[in-house]
Amino acid sequence: MVVMAKAEGFGAVRQVAGRLLTERAIEGETVARANRSARPARSVTVNLAESPLGWLLARGLIDERQFEAGEKLRADWERANLAPSITMRWDAAPRSGGYRGRDDHLEPTERQAAARQRFDAAITALGRDLNDIAWRVICSGEAMPVAEKALGWPVRSGRLVLRMALDRLADFYRLP
């Protein structure tokens, strides 16, 4: 079964084996074709149902700005390595001297600390009333009904509160 939909920034959405997949172009990379039209040089397949935010976006329950705000918060959460570790870390030890990496010239621990500061500032900007649902759905990956039940909220009330939290996050991250 193939389902076609168009969302800003996303290509065609198709459903394969119960998973919503979409082709997303890598930003900034285009190649001129023979007929002088530009097309994405690379694309990746993204599973929209992978996170609760992706699920909400695929069904039109949140907009692209809210989705991007939630993804920024989740990215800071993951970069700060705030999730509990279950096993031993097998990452390579950082090399000293001659590090030629990203343009920000930060060591991995400094990038982690900066992500932690951004995450803490975003959660503080949300306030006590909105940070609980945002953390549960965005960072922890809980489904909306599970988060509502854990917070003792009525059914379907979490979506409205999450939309307000995502709007506040978008303002915090200064998204257009």
Please provide a brief summary of the model.
The protein is an alpha+beta fold and 176 residues long. The strands form 2 sheets. It has a 3-stranded antiparallel beta sheet, with no helix packed on it. Strands 3-4 form a two-stranded antiparallel sheet. Helix 4 (128-139) packs antiparallel against helix 5 (144-151) and helix 4 crosses helix 6.
Would you give an account of this structure?
A hairpin with a 2-residue loop joins strand 1 and strand 2 (19-25). A 3-stranded antiparallel β-sheet has the order 1-2-5, with no helix packed on it. The protein has a two-stranded antiparallel ribbon with strand order 3-4. The radius of gyration is 19 Å and the shape is globular. It contains 6 helices and 5 strands, in the order E-E-E-E-E-H-H-H-H-H-H. Residues 1-11 and 26-36 have low confidence and may be disordered. The chain is α+β, with helices and mostly antiparallel strands and 176 residues long. Helix 4 (128-139) packs antiparallel against helix 5 (144-151) and helix 4 (128-139) crosses helix 6 (158-172).
Assign an overall shape. globular
Structural class: alpha+beta
Helix-strand topology string: EEEEEHHHHHH
> Percent range for helical residues?
40-55%
Quaternary structure annotation: single chain
Q: Tell me the number of strands.
A: 5
Strand content: 5-15%
Tell me the span between the first and last alpha carbons: 35 Å
What topology, given as strand order, has the largest sheet? 1-2-5
Number of helices: 6
How is the biggest beta sheet arranged? Answer: 3 strands, antiparallel
- The whole-angstrom Rg is 19 Å
Mean pLDDT: 75
Which regions have little confidence, pLDDT < 50, spanning 5+ residues? Answer: 1-11, 26-36
